[in-house]
Design brief:
With about 375 residues, this protein is mainly β. It has two helices and 25 strands. β21 and β22 form a beta hairpin.
Amino acid sequence: MAIYKLFPYKDATLYSFYPDMNTGIDPITTISNLNFAVDSNPQVARFLTEFVQSEIEDVINNKISGSQWDVDFKSFIATAQGVVEATDISVHPVAQYWYNGTGTYLDQPLTTDGCAWYSPYFKNSGVLWSGSGTDNTNHYVTSSYNPNFVNAGGGAWYHSGSDGTLYAVTQSFDTRSTKDLKINAKTIVEKWYSGSFENNGFITKWENSVEFNTNAQIQPVMQFYSIDTNTIYPPQLEFKWRDYQSVLDGPASSSIVNTTNLVSSLAENPGYFTPRAINRFRFNVAAKYPIRTFTTASQFTGTNYLPTASYYAIKDLDTNEFVVSYDTNYTQLSSDNEGNYFDVHMNGLEPERYYKICVKTNIKGSTLILDDNYYFKVVNAL
């Protein structure tokens, strides 16, 4: 498929209330602005997430290979509270290397062997988060804190380039909106890929007007699953590219089914795949009641096609959630002389789970969902 997911190799939350505490293996990452009863100062949390640079380069060089592409940074919500009106989360590229550490939230004693509010390294390392200014790559680096409430720290990130390009990406949330984080990260990833600046991952935070706000009514908290979660919702960097190929602009166009009364089947599906597998599924269709014609060959032995406006999606069978959604650019069914097909990279699917393939098409103004028990499982080993 033209969807390929990478998972981070490190993430951690920075807490201004515990400025030396590391949370590098906590199952949750957090953004918040809280006014604790034990302290009249508002306390802020932000989190870091980093993906392996060589894996990003491999996807762009060896899988996308010049096709039209895009990429999203996604993180999945665990809990949310206090988001009472439209409020923005901002995501920036981190400007300094940081240590993941081995802490969890409120270890006793606190773990201090990795990044925290004060330092990207560890407590007493002598290395602090950078302040604002232009670095040696001519990109403007900034940080954000309120000296009335906490000392300098909380990360450092690239704000803009010398050409005025802004690197912040935002997403707005309100009381009833979906709380999963999904931001377009192509500008940032392109900078990492080109070497314009080093890949130190993303920092995710509330917008400046929310952080260190003393108003008791502005206390939003959103917690997301980290790479150390025991759930099926780790953060991900989702690459999408257009690998659509078609023979339906020639003589084969006469073989497109033009009735909603059809039969379909999924071929080239052994049912079990390892996480490193790449499989080409074939989707076969035929009219259930073909028009009677005089011919010397069976109408059921020829190759038939769905219309070009046909797309696939993949659902987790237990949760009934889409892990790959219908996309008119990136999940369009291709076609060749053998029929319709699409490719799936199993790496982005959680192992030891069952999945269901659905196909959506439009025939004569009617939208059809074809999902006749097209199941498969990703397993750790066969």
